[in-house]
Amino acid sequence: MKKTSIAFLILVISFLSGCSVIEGANNTLTYATEVTEFANEATIFAKDTPALAQQAVSNKEAATELEASLQVMKTNIEEFNELQPPEMAADLHQQVVTQNENAIKGIDLYLNNIKDGTLDPAVLENNEAFKSLGEIKNIVDQIRDLVGQ
């Protein structure tokens, strides 16, 4: 009876430790997928939004579209910052979070300066949001290499 109990205990422990390995692999894969999606969104945003911002100076429709785009990107950034990276990617994730914080400051500047459906032209001189999000691609590429994606 004692041998059966010990064997059963070993089997349960082996199963549980195997589950944590599988869970860790799933978390790493999920994180890599999230990073890739965020990088794609940030790249498109950084590429397309400066032209829209130029139009928003004199076009109320463009300003409304810009405001919506800025809000969506800000939400995406905040959601990304809340992700829990695998231990091996923690430092790189923090670098992305730092860039994201700079981008949020730039986004907030744009949002605060959209008045009466147009953007103050002086704000266009600050494109920190676009620079920060453009720089994320390099860090994300390092993360993908690290987690094997």
From TrEMBL:
Residues 1-25 form the signal peptide. The keyword Signal applies. Keywords: Signal. InterPro entries: DUF6376. This is Lipoprotein. It comes from Planomicrobium soli.
